[in-house]
Specification:
Blueprint lengths: L6 E3 L16 H11 L5 E8 L14 E2 L6 H12 L4 E7 L9 E4 L12 E4 L2 H20 L4 E6 L4 H6 L14 H4 L1 H14 L5 E6 L11 H13 L4 E5 L6 H4 L11 H7 L7 E3 L6 H9 L5 E3 L1 H6 L3 H6 L17 H7 L29 E5 L3 H12 L3 E5 L8 H5 L11 H11 L3 E3 L6 H7 L3 E4 L3 E3 L6 E2 L8 E4 H6 L7 E5 L3 H11 L4 E5 L11 H13 L3 E3 L4 E5 L3 E5 L4 E3 L5 E4 L3 E3 L2 H9 L2 E4 L14 H14 L1
Parallel strand pairs: 1-2, 1-11, 2-3, 2-4, 4-7, 5-6, 7-8, 8-9, 9-10, 10-11, 12-13, 12-15, 13-14, 15-27, 17-22, 18-25, 19-20, 19-25, 20-21
Antiparallel strand pairs: 16-26, 22-23, 23-24
C-alpha cells in the first residue's frame, strides 16, 4: 500500500457514529471526511469489536458490530466517502477483554475491576480462545469485502490481546501464559488467522504498547523489541507504537503535563529491530516536530489524533506552510477524553464542531441574510471565539477588551507550571481575527457612550467573571492584622509577591493550580476546600498530574472544610464537622473560590433595546462545565454562528 505522506489519523474512541445496530452513521463518516479533505496518508477508523463479548453493552455504548454482516453496507459508504480524497482508510479490530463495559467480561485470567464498573471477570477457556482467534479473521475478511485498505489489530491499551501479553493480567499456567513465548501466542495466532482471511496483498498493522506504565509486572519496551521481528516475519506490515492501560489511562490520552513526543524513544528503539514501517503517537501536535521525528529516523509515520480533532485542516495547512494558521491542541483533555467519560461523546476545547460536522459547515463567507454589526465585549476565549465565528459568517465585528491584551483567563492559566500550552491558542485567535477583518480595540471599556458611538445590531457580552471574597466562608476578616489578602487573578496578573506561608481558599481547578504556582516558588502552601474532591472541573489526566505535583512539593490539602476562621493575633483555623485545626502560620490568604458573573453591561444594553447575548463565565459560574475553556469556547461558537 502506497501512501502520499507520513501523517496518520489514528483510531480514537469518540463515542459517536454508530447506530443501535452497530452500523456506521453519517455522523462518523462526515467526521472522518472532514479530516480526509486535508489529505493525511491514512485514517484508522475507531475500533470495531470482533464478537459480542468483546464489545460494550449496547445500552451503555454503541460500537461497530463487526461480527455481523449487516454493517458492511455502512462501511462501504464510509470508505467511498473517504476515498474521494485519495486517503487510505482502514479500521482497528479488537476485543475489550477485561476492560469491557458489560456485566460479565472475559480475559486471559479472572482479574476483576479493570473497567472500574464492578463487573464480573471470567477466564477464557481454550475453546473460547480459539473461537476468538477465528472471529478476528472473520471480521478482517469482512473489512476486505467492505473495501477498506488495511486492518489494524488492536494489541494495546490493556484490551484482550494486551492482557495476554502482560504478566500482571495473564496468570495462566497453560500454553497461553507464563513464558514470553506463551504470552505472545494469542497475538501470533490472531495475526496468522487474519492473514489467511485477507490474503497476501492486504496490509495488516498491529497497534501495541511500548510500555504498560503500571507498577506491577508489565509489558515493556524490551518485550516489544523482542516481539517486533517475530511479527514482521509473520507478515505484519506495520507497527503502531502506543502505551498505557486503563490503570495508566493518563498516558493513553496524555495531558499537557506530559512532554510532547514522550513515546518517540519507543519507536526509535523498535526501528532498530525491524524493517517494516513504524508509527508513533503520543502528544505530537506540531507538524514541525512530526517532520523532525521522521527526518531523524525515529519513526516512519506519525499519528496525530487530537491535533486533527482540534484542526481538521492541519495536514493541508502544514503542506501549504501555513503553520501559524493551525489551531493548536491544548492537551487540556476536558473536551476529548473528559467529555467522552462524562457524556459518552468526545468534544474538543478549541473545536466545538466535533461530532457535528454532518450538521454544521464552517465556511468563510457563508450565505447570510444580511451582515450585522456585532460588538463583542471581552477578549477572553469566549469572546475571541464568538468574534471569529461571527466574522467567518460575514458579519462586521468589533472586539473590545478593557485590558491591553487579549486572552483573558487563558493568559493567567498559561502562567501555571507545566500549563504554558494554555496560551498557545491566543496568537492563533489574533491571526484569525486579523485575517477575517475583525477590528480589535484594546484598553477599551464598553459602556453607554461606546454603545452610542458604535450602534451595534448585536452585543455579545463576554466579560467573564470576577473573584469575590467568600464572606460566609471566611469568618473574622475584621481580626486581620498582618495577614495579606489577595485575589487569585490579582496574584497572577500582577505577579504579586506573597509571604512564605500561604493559605489558598478554594481547591477546584483555580485554587489547586495557584497552589502549584506558589509551591514552585518555595512557599509553604495550605489549601482549604469546601467539597470532598479537589480540581473537579479538570480532566482526570490533568488532575492526576497536578495532585501528584503538589503532593511531591508538600502542599497540604484539606477537604470538607466548613469554614476558615481568623482569630485575634492572626490565628487561622480550619473548621470541620467535628474538629478544628490551627495552621502554624499564615502570612497570605489567596482567595480562589467564589466568583460572580460580570454582566454590568446587560442592564445598559437592555435599556437601549439592543439584542444581547451573554456567553462564557458572564452567563454563569456554576455548573459542571462553567468556568472551563471547553464551556467558554463552545458558548462563543454557538452565539457566533447563530448571530
Amino acid at each position: 500500500m502506497e501512501v502520499k505522506n507520513r501523517i496518520v489519523m489514528p483510531a480514537m474512541g469518540v463515542g459517536f457514529g454508530f447506530d443501535e445496530e452497530g452500523c456506521v452513521t453519517p455522523q462518523l463518516t462526515e467526521f472522518l471526511v472532514d479530516r480526509a479533505r486535508s489529505g493525511p496518508a491514512m485514517i484508522v477508523a475507531s475500533g470495531g469489536a470482533v464478537d459480542e463479548l468483546g464489545s460494550p453493552d449496547p445500552s451503555i455504548l454503541c460500537i461497530l458490530r463487526l461480527w455481523e454482516d449487516k454493517v458492511v453496507p455502512s462501511l462501504e459508504r464510509m470508505v467511498r466517502a473517504v476515498h474521494e480524497y485519495d486517503v487510505k482508510i482502514g479500521i482497528q479490530i479488537g476485543h475489550m477483554g477485561l476492560q469491557g463495559v458489560r456485566e460479565v467480561v472475559v480475559g486471559p485470567s479472572a482479574i476483576p475491576g479493570l473497567s472500574g464498573l464492578g463487573n464480573v471477570a471470567r477466564e477464557m477457556n481454550r475453546e473460547e480462545i480459539k473461537a476468538c482467534v477465528k472471529s478476528f479473521g472473520t471480521v478482517a475478511g469482512r473489512c476486505v469485502t467492505a473495501g477498506l485498505d488495511f486492518v489494524e489489530i488492536h494489541a494495546a491499551h490493556g484490551y484482550l490481546i494486551s492482557e495476554f501479553l502482560t504478566p500482571f493480567y495473564n496468570r495462566r499456567v497453560d500454553e497461553y501464559g507464563g513464558s514470553f513465548d506463551n504470552r505472545v501466542r494469542f497475538l501470533l495466532e490472531v495475526v496468522d488467522e487474519v492473514r489467511v482471511m485477507v490474503g497476501d496483498e492486504f496490509p495488516i498493522g498491529v497497534r501495541i504498547n511500548g510500555d504498560d506504565f503500571i507498577k506491577e509486572e508489565r509489558w515493556t519496551l524490551a518485550d516489544l523489541c523482542r516481539l517486533a521481528p517475530i511479527l514482521e516475519r509473520r507478515s505484519v506490515n506495520y507497527l503502531s507504537i502506543s502505551g498505557g492501560v486503563y490503570a495508566s489511562m493518563h498516558l493513553i490520552i496524555p495531558s499537557m503535563y506530559v512532554d510532547q513526543g514522550a513515546l518517540v524513544c519507543h519507536s526509535e528503539e523498535v526501528k532498530k529491530h525491524v524493517s517494516i514501517p513504524v508509527v508513533i503517537r503520543g502528544r505530537i501536535k506540531n507538524p514541525i516536530m512530526a517532520d523532525e521525528i521522521v527526518r531523524e529516523g525515529k519513526a516512519d509515520l506519525v499519528a496525530m489524533g487530537r491535533a486533527q480533532m482540534a484542526d481538521p485542516e492541519m495536514v493541508k495547512k502544514a503542506r501549504e506552510a501555513q503553520i501559524a494558521d493551525i489551531r493548536p491542541c491544548l492537551a487540556e483533555c476536558r473536551g476529548c477524553s473528559g467529555a467522552l467519560f462524562r457524556s459518552g461523546q468526545a468534544s474538543c476545547c478549541v473545536n466545538p464542531r466535533i461530532g457535528r460536522e454532518y450538521l454544521i459547515k464552517d465556511v468563510e463567507g457563508e450565505k447570510i441574510a444580511a451582515a450585522k454589526r456585532v460588538l463583542v465585549a471581552g477578549a477572553g476565549c469566549a469572546g475571541l471565539e464568538a468574534a471569529r465565528r461571527a466574522a467567518l459568517a460575514g458579519h462586521i465585528v468589533i472586539l473590545c477588551e478593557s485590558r491591553g491584551w487579549i486572552g483573558g483567563q487563558l493568559r493567567l492559566a498559561a502562567m501555571i507550571p507545566k500549563r504554558q500550552e494554555m496560551g498557545d491558542i491566543i496568537p492563533w485567535y489574533e491571526r484569525q481575527l486579523n485575517k477575517l477583518g475583525v477590528e480589535i480595540r484594546l484598553n477599551t471599556l464598553v459602556d453607554d457612550d461606546l454603545l452610542s458611538q458604535i450602534g451595534p445590531d448585536v452585543l455579545v457580552i463576554a466579560t467573564g467573571s470576577l473573584p469575590e471574597v467568600p464572606l460566609g466562608y471566611i469568618k473574622g476578616l475584621e481580626n486581620i492584622k498582618d495577614i495579606e489578602l489577595v485575589m487569585a487573578d490579582e496574584l497572577l496578573e500582577e505577579q504579586l509577591l506573597t509571604g512564605d506561608n500561604v493559605l489558598v481558599v478554594g481547591g477546584d481547578q483555580i485554587g489547586l493550580q495557584v497552589a502549584d504556582y506558589l509551591s514552585e516558588r518555595h512557599k509553604k502552601v495550605y489549601v482549604a476546600e469546601r467539597g470532598a474532591q479537589f480540581a473537579e472541573k479538570m480532566a482526570f489526566q490533568d488532575r492526576a498530574y497536578l495532585v501528584g505535583r503538589i503532593i511531591d512539593k508538600a502542599v497540604e490539602r484539606r477537604a470538607r472544610v466548613n469554614s476558615v476562621e481568623i482569630l485575634a493575633n492572626d490565628e487561622v483555623w480550619m473548621v470541620y464537622d467535628d474538629a478544628r485545626e490551627r495552621l502554624p502560620r499564615v502570612d497570605t490568604i489567596v482567595l480562589a473560590s467564589d466568583r460572580r458573573p460580570n454582566i454590568f453591561l446587560a442592564e445598559v444594553a437592555e435599556k437601549r433595546g439592543i439584542e444581547t447575548q451573554i456567553i462564557g463565565d458572564a452567563s454563569g459560574v456554576t455548573g459542571e462545565d462553567q468556568g472551563t475553556v471547553l464551556s467558554a469556547v463552545a458558548s462563543g461558537y454557538e452565539v457566533g454562528r447563530q448571530v
